[in-house]
Amino acid sequence: MNHSIHSADRATHLKIVVVALIAGIGIAALGISARNNADFTQTAQSTQVIKAGKPVAITSSGTSTVR
Q: Can you tell me where the transmembrane regions are (predicted)?
């Protein structure tokens, strides 16, 4: 039984890397799926279409001119 990572063999290091990689992929997948669900439920109810009005140029005299 080896209690130090420095004196562990190559197979032990490989096992640690594989477990960390699988855990990282799992956490990333969970985060992406949770974020997509939250965005969909919030934006589906509050999305509104905003139409642009006529272009307006503001002059230095303070009056606005519709072009």
A: 12-32
DSSP letter string, 12-67? HHHHHHHHHHHHHHHHHHHHHHHHHHHHHHHHHHH---------EEE-TTS-EEE-
Q: How confident is the model at residue 19 (pLDDT cuts 50, 70, 90)?
A: very high
Sign of CA dihedral 17, 18, 21, 27: negative
Task: Decide if 65 contacts 57 (C-beta within 8 A).
Answer: yes
What's the CA gap between 54 and 10, in Å, rounded?
69
- For residue 48, what are its two tokens? 């509104």
Residues facing 58 on adjacent strands: 64
- pLDDT computed for residue 31 by the predictor: 86
